[in-house]
Design brief:
Radius of gyration of chain A: 31 Å
Shape of chain A: elongated
Strand order of the largest sheet of chain B: 2-1-6
Strand content of chain B: 5-15%
Order of helices and strands of chain B: EEHHHHHHHHHHHHEHEHEHE
Strand content of chain A: 5-15%
Largest sheet of chain B: 3 strands, mixed
Oligomer: heterodimer
Helix content of chain B: 40-55%
Number of strands of chain A: 2
Chain lengths: 157, 326
């Protein structure tokens, strides 16, 4: 059974006023604050603009960095070495899936890109800018820990 | 003039015959607010979805880089060592700072307008409503759970469960600071969602499934009971001068705002909705049929100099209404 108030709200679609039924008043409360109404449209527009401007500001200041543009190094990797993907590894244990083949080649010469690609089961014409994790996923050959072990062995020889 | 008082009957002094009239809000107004919010949510889901698919298919930028929670988790390590923890990039720190400022200004605005996980829960809940509306027992269960206040026992359980957000926040922040890793990542449903294409049965995936199943019956269960990002914003939101405010003299007491609130806040008992669980969705404002019943207001820095005692209902009516005697 619909209440008279609810029925009135639904039915009086053209009415410009609403009658408050006796006994239906909500708890009357007061605030000690001076308040000013804000138009909802202005409130929403301002709060959408605020994060947009903040992110744009950080980006223009060069503080925005993601996996492809790393502005800082991650804990556990040497600082001061940044580039595409994660920072270049100093030791085989630092190799991560987000690093590129070229980064590993640069860090562990005389190992060549062809050797790494062969180890990962990737075609030899694969660009050296490819990330290790991509090749691991595609190759189904070895995983990153195995690659680290292999690099360790190569370094020991 | 916002309202009119109309006395009818033979005894003008008798309160029983007093009816107050207040201006009505245009009926389409609420729909415009709702659709604007849904449009913004849809756009954000599309952007994040595009990122996630791009990451899976072509190894592009991880959508994790767009997660502000990672910024909060990695903040301590960043401040003390100058480095970010694994899976956190400076973009996450930027977003964390942005969310913090947004919370100080607009409380939980991020949760209800921008967070893709919240959007997903809303979508599932809408689907759940469509299904359960056709099955009376499920419909009754959903309505009771939604309102919370309907069942005293459920209300108590709900109140206890809401402390979960603070526990999860403490676990995520302290754990990350102590271990230098994102400890919450193992149970983060957002990560499970991003990695859904590379499916593996994990705690995060279980949490995601549980969240979505609960969302069929409860609005935004993860936001209510477990979201650490929401907890951070609740704390920052305490500083916000902006809140939804109820004008008691124009409030119909119709309960529509209470029913519209996804966080089950009893809006019609508040003057200013400053609850920590308020996510700023404006559903209550959109649902209010009275022109001046609920509004977004900015609290000015000065307090009233003269303290007034709590007004009674007749006082409020007498103070604000123009009396028409017929």
């Amino acid at each position: 059974m619909r209440s008279p108030l609810r029925a009135g709200l639904r039915d009086a679609t053209t009415a410009t006023e609403l009658a408050i039924p006796r006994g239906r008043r909500a708890v009357p409360t007061q605030t000690r604050l001076h308040t000013r109404r804000i138009p909802v449209a202005m409130y929403v527009a301002a709060l959408l603009l605020l994060p947009t401007l903040m992110v744009a500001g950080f980006m223009s200041a060069g503080l925005w960095a993601n996996a492809e543009t790393s502005a800082t190094t991650q804990a556990g990797t040497p600082s001061g070495e940044s580039g595409a993907g994660a920072a270049a590894p100093a030791a085989p244990a630092d190799v991560k899936g987000s690093m590129t083949v070229q980064q590993v080649v640069d860090a562990f010469r005389p190992i060549t890109a062809a050797q790494i690609l062969a180890k990962l089961g990737a075609p030899l014409n694969t660009p050296t800018s490819a990330q290790l994790k991509t090749l691991v996923e595609k190759g189904n050959s070895i995983d990153i820990p195995t690659l680290r072990t292999w690099l360790q062995e190569q370094g020991a020889k | 003039m916002t309202m009119q008082e109309e006395r009818t009957g033979s005894s003008p002094g008798a309160g029983a015959d007093v009816r107050v009239r207040v201006p009505r809000r245009p009926k389409s107004w609420g729909s415009k607010v709702r659709w604007t919010r849904h449009a913004v949510q849809g756009a954000l889901v599309a952007v994040v979805g595009w990122q996630a698919v791009g990451h899976v298919t072509s190894g592009g930028e991880s959508a994790e880089a767009w997660c502000p929670l990672g910024g909060f988790e990695g903040a301590w390590t960043m401040l003390t060592t100058g480095r970010t923890v694994a899976h956190v990039h400076t973009s996450s720190l930027v977003l964390a700072a942005t969310v913090l400022v947004l919370a100080v200004v607009g409380r939980g605005f991020f949760c209800s307008w921008l967070c893709p996980l919240g959007t997903l829960q809303e979508m599932v809940h809408s689907a759940g409503r469509a299904v359960t509306d056709g099955i009376p027992p499920l419909r009754r269960l959903r309505r009771r759970l939604e309102r919370g206040a309907g069942i005293e026992r459920w209300r108590r359980i709900d109140g206890v469960l809401r402390w979960g957000r603070w526990l999860v926040l403490a676990w995520a922040i302290i754990g990350a600071a102590v271990t230098g890793t994102m400890v919450f990542r193992v149970a983060d449903p957002w990560i499970a969602l991003l990695m859904v294409a590379q499916f593996e049965l994990s705690l995060a995936f279980v949490v995601l499934v549980a969240t979505l199943v609960l969302a069929l019956f409860i609005q935004r269960p993860f936001c209510r009971y477990a979201c650490p990002l929401g907890a951070v914003q609740s704390l920052a939101g305490k500083l916000s001068p902006i809140a939804v405010q109820r004008d008691a003299s124009a409030c119909l007491g119709c309960d529509l705002c209470n029913q519209a609130c996804p966080m089950a806040i009893p809006v019609n008992t508040r003057t200013r909705v400053t609850d920590t669980s308020c996510n700023g969705c404006l559903e209550c404002v959109a649902a209010c049929p009275s022109q001046n019943g609920l509004a977004v207001t900015l609290a000015m820095p000065t307090l009233r100099t003269r303290r007034t005692p709590p007004a009674t209902e007749p006082d409020l009516q007498a103070a604000t209404a123009s009396v028409i005697t017929r």
